[in-house]
Amino acid sequence: MIPYGHQRIDADDEQAVLDVLRSDWLTTGPKVDEFEQAICAFTDAKHGVAVSSGTAALHAAFHALGIGPGDEVVVPAMTFAATANAVLYCGGTPVFCDVLADNLLIDPERAEALITPRTKALVGVDYAGHPCDWDALRRIADKHSLALVADACHALGGKYHGRKVGTLADISVFSFHPVKHLTTGEGGMCVTDDAGLALKMRRFRNHGISTDARQREKAGGWYYEMTELGFNYRITDIQCALGISQLNKMPRSLEVRNAVARQYEQSFQGTGIAPLARDEDVLHAYHLFVVRVRERDKSFSALRQAGIGVNVHYIPVHLHPYYRERLGTKDGMCPVSEAAYREILSLPMWCGVEEHMEYICAEMKKVCGA
Ligand SMILES: *Cc1c(COP(=O)(O)O)cnc(C)c1O
Predict the structure, then answer these.
(1) What percentage of the chain reaches a pLDDT higher than 70?
(2) Are residues 197 and 269 in the same domain?
(3) Kind of pairing, strands 147-151 and 119-125?
(4) What pLDDT was estimated at residue 223?
(5) How far is CA 10 from CA 15, 171, 252, in A?
(6) Does the pLDDT at position 67 exceed 80?
(7) Is 153 touching ligand 1 by the criterion CB < 6 Å?
(8) 2 lines ligand 1 (CB under 6 A)
């Protein structure tokens, strides 16, 4: 089966991990700082806080922003459940917003209409790797005094109007799961330009304790204070060494992903396969390549039968049984997301898929091109 996403691990990645295994620090060591600094340099963000997953990063972000019981956070319905789940972890209430039909990104007008006196934050998800309309989201956030969060788990390396993903919201969140652009096995990071938010997230990943083991060792002391309730969301040096090594491949990965996308777009011209819209003034990071097809379920099975591991991203979050029961969400609340969900397929998109492109495009046209 040709998967829809796949990691790429080379000999230099393996060596980087081995070097850490032979060093003194397996966790909370120098590779964590180095990885944070490397992601900051790559994204132009000022502060990075590396954690154990993208989900932990979302949790840390909402915690740092002070989301709590009674607070509402506007999130797009077309996303992975973790975006909304992290609001619930903090005791807040996710409010689901519909997306734009052509690119499945949060609809700024609809988002503004959902704002109430309880709304504390607005979340954009750079779905598939296409940055949201961050200018519009920023205007709304400023007008209503909301925090702006980017779930940029799909968009590492992307750009919006010449500005890099990672600098477009108050906090931006990345995931380093193997299907994402860069992997640490599991892992995630929050980036922000706000030193205060970074400090809060740093404490949160380490039980809410004010200093970490290395700082105490340097100071030669034993004393520390737990000032708030945090978690163990730390990431290891083993993972960060892999991340640093993987980051070297990002420019190439973005090039390959964009070339693969152009090939899909050209191949599907004049067929019944409709790729999502792409703005000219963005650099699309292409975590996913998503198309709409007429008979999605039939196409899905036929393509899987042909060895092409297509997938569906996503079941709109408000349709999950947990959310229906917990928040009373219903069919019809986000009609654009719901209609898109019945038509979308994610096609293989990763570094190395190039050699399969001819076969994938031919099968796509055979199965759903009419
Ligand atoms: C992958 C992903 C997450 C969660 O990241 P994990 O590292 O798997 O916890 C959150 N939001 C979106 C949009 C994602 O794609």
Answers:
(1) 100
(2) no
(3) parallel
(4) 85
(5) 9, 31, 14
(6) yes
(7) yes
(8) no
Same domain, 312 and 324: yes
The CA-atom distances, in angstroms, between 160 and each of 31, 101, 191, 287 are 30, 19, 17, 16
Q: Are residues 70 and 206 in the same domain?
A: yes
pLDDT digits (tens, 9 = 90+) for 173-217: 999 999 999 999 999 999 999 999 999 999 999 999 987 777 777
Distance, first Cα to last Cα, the chain:
24
- Residue 283 near ligand 1, beta carbon < 6 Å: no
Mean pLDDT of 246-267: 97
Neighbours of 8 (CB within 10 A): 17
Does 274 map to a domain?
yes
Residue 3 within any structural domain of the chain: no
Residues 6+ apart with CB under 8 A from 101: 336, 339, 340
Structure tokens at 121: 């934050």
Of 218, 247, 276, the residue at which a domain comes to its end is 247
Burial class (CB in 10 A: 0-12, 13-18, 19+), 44: middle
> Which numbered atom of ligand 1 lies nearest the CA of 127?
13
Give residue 118's Cα distance to chain centre: 26
Does the annotation count 180 as an active-site position?
yes
The alpha carbons of the chain give a radius of gyration, in whole angstroms, of: 21
Q: Which atom of ligand 1 is nearest to the CA of 53?
A: 7
- B/e letters for 120-131, b = 16+ CB within 10 Å, e = fewer, are bbbbbbbbbbbb
Give me the pLDDT at residue 212, please. 75
Residues 350 and 217 in one domain: no
Instruction: Establish how many alpha carbons lie within 13 A of residue 7's alpha carbon, considering only the half-sphere containing its beta carbon.
Output: 16
Q: Domain containing 341: what range?
A: 250-368
Phi, psi torsion values for 192, nearest 5 degrees:
-160, 160
